[in-house]
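Two records follow; treat each independently.
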Amino acid sequence: MTTDVPVLGHRELNRALLARQMLLERRAMPALEAIEHLVGLQSQAPNPPYIGLWSRLAGFAFDEVGELMTDRRALRIVLMRGTLHLVSARDARALRPLTQVILDNHLKTRARDLDGIDLTAVVASARALLEGEPRTDKEVRTLLAERWPDADAALLGWAVRCSLPLVQVPPRGIWGASGMARHTTLDVWLGGPAASDPSVDEMVLRYLAAFGPASVQDVQHWSGLTRLGEVVERLIPKLLVFQDERGRKLYDVPEAPRPGPDTAAPVRFVPEFDNLTLSHADRARIITEEHRKRVFTVNGIIRATFLVDGFVHGMWKIEKKRGEATLRIDPFTPVPALERAELEDEGMRLLAAAHPDAKSHQVEFGAPSA
């Protein structure tokens, strides 16, 4: 280790992460402000961001996000890591140009399959179709196949999704609503193009404010971008420098909170796909490698987890049968009596917020499965 650089242990990193993620105490702020502070919430499935905001915000109302999406102040679009995120309209404009390179790289992996296809013409045709009216992937594939009957329609549809900034429009993504995923372009949905001068420096600073202190590898893991070392190097005059217990350099914005390692951390329910467990190359600050292997499935599902003393302690899910809503908690190791009672109370509040019309609510604990 470099002796003149302050060392942060995994509990100090844990408390810093929880504070910035609004999981040490719920914050009283509008949902849109929280979404921007978090630099979006991963939204592979429509409902998890609602649970994520409920666990972070005081007085969060589930219909608040639906109103933001209907009013086009928030939306769902592919961004960091090439994954679907719920972000503000402002961040969609700023971040999509920066993350387009991730999708361009995806296209390069199928360059041989696309050889001989006039991709420019395909994308232009798809843009016209999608800007005429929001359409499902199946509809786009069918229409493209009419013009390019000898091409693989599924491949064309995939190439279009990689090439165009597509917004998944409501009612898809609104809590309690249903419907097929339909898309249009970001330009049409927001009435103008994305940012013409997006700042990767600003993106890195915002990541550190929401997830730091962190290494260059961490910010690359979160964003899906590479070669960010030169960006961090350029930003060093604005940053604090630390190291972890293994001697790796960590960077941080000076104004961000860094609570002490013994700061109390309440129990919290974290939804599927939450960026809390996805945004660092080294996740020891929030989950052990043994537990990560159980939470992250081979088919890309990131299961919902709960926190005890600030760390992932097990998994949970809500089941609704015959009008009864049950939250099942499956701990990895035994939960102390006090935290068990807190989880039950928190779980009942979550059920009441997420399923207010259920005939009954109950919390069940499974046996520890370490």
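The next record belongs to a different protein.
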Amino acid sequence: MYKTVVAIDGDGIGSEIVSAARQVMDKALEKEDIKINWVEKKAGGAAIDEFGEPLPADTIEACKEADAVLLGAVGGPKWDNVAPHLRPEQAILGLRKALGLFCNLRPVKIFPALREYSPLKPELVEHVDFVIVRELTGGIYFGEREEASGEGKDEMAWDKETYHRYEVERIMDVAVKTAQKRRGKVTSVDKANVLASSRLWRRIAQETAANNPDIQMDYLYVDNTAMQLVTNPGQFDVIVTTNLFGDILSDEGAVVSGSLGVLPSASMGEGTALYEPIHGSAPDIAGRGIANPLGTILSAALLCRYSLDAPKAADAIEQAVEKALAEGYRTGDIYKEGMIKVNTAGMTNVVLSYV
């Protein structure tokens, strides 16, 4: 069986980590008798340099026709002074819009070998394994806005938070389906004591709970959730929330895990799903071969599970990463004395040996 996956290296360390993930994917998929037809396209700063824009139409069309997209990272100081509509990050927003990706899945799981890396006490993170389901195309990030105008103390700017019923219903549906495959618990996060949009959000969450009696639905304000993530993170299974709150809470969850370098993500919706690590392009170490490829490799595992319907390959990748960490292999970003320090290629080879 052949599947088509668009590989977008992006910028900085992107080419190094995407290459690692591709090698691991190709080997793991042998277990499912699936072969990948890799289509290489550009986006971000690399596309600006070659085509004068961060997201060429050719890249969009290739992604629409593919079974999945694997992305490294985009951005870097080289493009800090370009016009706002030409910034490398516009490639991500453009792909989400073009592919109808309204949901971001961000798993937060602490591998036993990395518990000591969390800033929280070991007993607090022992059972941390949750998924943040973030609404991705609505809310204040995509609402009406007005840049600063006026003078002196009267200068002002504003942004509008808007949610339609269909946007909340479809993200709740994803949260429920995700929880049904896990421990059956959803925590809906809002600010319904203050925001009108949050009151609609909570009402629809309650309706969703009533229609899915097999799911336990809890409701928390976002400020309380932020506190609970550092005092009792093990209580969460699936957290579903708005674009703005999800942006903030998912980064907090990443810190709880102890390492940005090992966390994957998936953006899903109406069209081809997009998979990428949560870390940035790290231009300061680009080309040195020392980047941590595990976040991208684990993103590839999500790709196998959700877009290729290849659960055995996904399990093989995740178990290989866990074994590599358990055996003490570490890239520089997570290295501690007494561990086995490896570079990008070294970590990739170790994971390959365990797949």
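Discussion point: Residues 165-180 form the longest helix (16 residues). How would you locate this feature using only the token line?
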